[in-house]
Amino acid sequence: MDVKKIGVVGAGTMGNGIAHVAAMNGYDVVMVDVKDELLERAFATITKNLDRMVKKEKITEADKQAALEKIRPSTELKELADCDIVIEAVTEDLSIKLDVFRQMDSICKQDAILASNTSSISITQLAAVTGRPEMVIGMHFMNPVPVMKLVEIVKGLQTSDSTYKIVHDLAEKLGKTPVLVNDYPGFISNRVLMPMINEACWALMQGVATKEAIDTVMKLGMAHPMGPFELADLIGLDVCLAIMEVLYEGFSDSKYRPCPLLRNMVKAGYLGRKTKRGFYTYE
Ligand code: NAD
Predict the structure, then answer these.
(1) How many whole angstroms separate alpha carbon 230 and alpha carbon 272?
(2) Fold for domain 190-274?
(3) Is 69 among the catalytic positions?
(4) Which of 2, 80, 114, 186 is 20 to 30 Å from 203 by CA-CA measure?
(5) Residue 152 designated active-site
């Protein structure tokens, strides 16, 4: 199948980034969210990000206009009916995603691929509520989408090789580097990253070193661009905790148990940069 038209459901942080990248690469895009003001906000974000690229002379003003014209906003899922692939990027909530997948399955044309940008929900479980599980796949972009090169392509238990091939090729056409992973909790990115952040929390809680010292060890000793606490503050401590819970439950293995300090931080509302206080404070 030759993908020409891409649907994006959810126009938040990730959805507007995916729409931006798809439009910049010449695809027609239908971008769906639940309210007009959310779509307007997404458009404003895309415009601002494209303006930055014009300023850096990476694209011309004409390229920017052409990309914006490629994106059609809508509050109606039925507008996705003629898309070749739909990438779901709605709120990370199982019941919302299951509902969106059921609706997409009934609305989208028979040979359309249904992809999810989920960070932690099982692709196999999303596929199971559709009548086309072999055409359901994970397409896990990284934040910020226009900048980050990686896309984890997640094969569910029933995903076909032909679906994988189309999505792999699409990711490359979007200028990304696709990496194949199978559908197990946390895929690869979060399965490796989150236990590292969680272990840093245990070390801090046990008084092994200060947060600044732990961040410095990882930056200068391991060449990480950010320390684990700086990164956790950026991601959101609530998001880190939720993903640790997914790993803990998904594998039923105590090695993934969330650190009590991380739980306490979330209980206190210290969620990181977004609340101006996490492990560090932000003005
Ligand atoms: P977000 O909260 O910024 O955006 C989610 C959007 O989905 C909102 O605009 C919301 O209105 C919309 N939405 C909710 N229900 C909907 C429905 N029924 N129909 C249409 N739109 C609906 O969230 P986000 O950070 O963009 O995350 C989206 C997905 O991407 C999640 O699955 C998340 O796990 C994943 N993800 C996030 C990141 C990240 O760093 N933020 C990175 C990788 C993957």
Answers:
(1) 9
(2) N-(1-d-carboxylethyl)-l-norvaline Dehydrogenase; domain 2 (1.10.1040)
(3) no
(4) 186
(5) yes
Strands (E), 45-167: 71-74, 85-88, 113-116, 136-141, 150-155
Q: Where in the chain is the domain with CATH 3.40.50.720?
A: 5-182
- Residues with Cβ within 8 Å of residue 215, at least 6 apart in sequence: 226, 227, 228, 229, 230
* Pocket mutation for ligand 1, best pick of 8, 13, 179 (most atoms within 8 Å of C-beta): 13
Q: Which two tokens stand for residue 227?
A: 């320390």
CATH class of 5-182: alpha beta
Q: What is the mean pLDDT, run by run of 10 residues, along the chain of 283 residues?
A: 96 96 98 98 97 96 97 98 98 95 98 96 97 98 96 98 98 98 97 98 98 98 98 95 95 98 98 97 94
Which among 116, 120, 122, 190 is annotated as catalytic? 190
